[in-house]
Design a protein that fits this description.
Elements: E1 9-12, H1 24-28, E2 34-37, H2 38-47, H3 51-61, H4 64-73, E3 79-80, H5 85-90, E4 99-100, H6 102-113, H7 120-131, E5 150-156, E6 165-175, E7 181-191, H8 195-214
Antiparallel strand pairs: 1-2, 3-4, 5-6, 6-7
Helix pairs in contact: 2-3, 2-7
Amino acid sequence: KENISVDKKLFVKKSDLLPDTWSPLRDKYPNGNLELSFSEIIKSTVSHSDNNGCDILFRFVGGTNKVHNFISKLGVKNISIKATEEEMHKAWNVQYTNWTTPDATDQLLKKFYKNEILSKNSYDFLLNTMIETTTGPKRLKGLLPDGTVVAHKTGSSDTNDKGITAATNDIGIITLPNGKHFAIAVYVSDSSEKSDVNEKIIAEICKSVWDYLIKGGK
């Protein structure tokens, strides 16, 4: 799509706001059929993990393949974006068509942080939106000192009838006390543990990296 201001508005139909999924937008605007700014849709999608918001944005840009191809053209491999939130909710195994690796995610985060992808205004907006993320406070942020600036995006799946949680994720850019930053991506996959255990795994990995870098690691 062409460059679009986050202040531009998009018409959101009631049918865009599916009932059986996590969606603060739907809870706020249950009747739909109104214009919402891209800034509100993006903030709800990124900061609050709004599944309907994600799919609204997918449809606007032309689908998951458009996003997949855009990331590939950035030179980032091992990221597959094939299914929408709606599609993933229809069958358990569909979610596995969306996959990546921590290394690939870190590469994408670094490109974003170096401002190699977006305009300055869009970069500032998205970075601040990630810093304002409310989901997953016990994940990357869980064991870091209070006040640490963490620009991050969480991801979570359902738990199936066998007690398997396909995904408990958090990726982000963290500011160290010396003003430097590091990118980190932690994916806990197909876990039979409870949610708090999965989140603690993420927190402990992040804290280990933090401690290593604080002590002068490279």
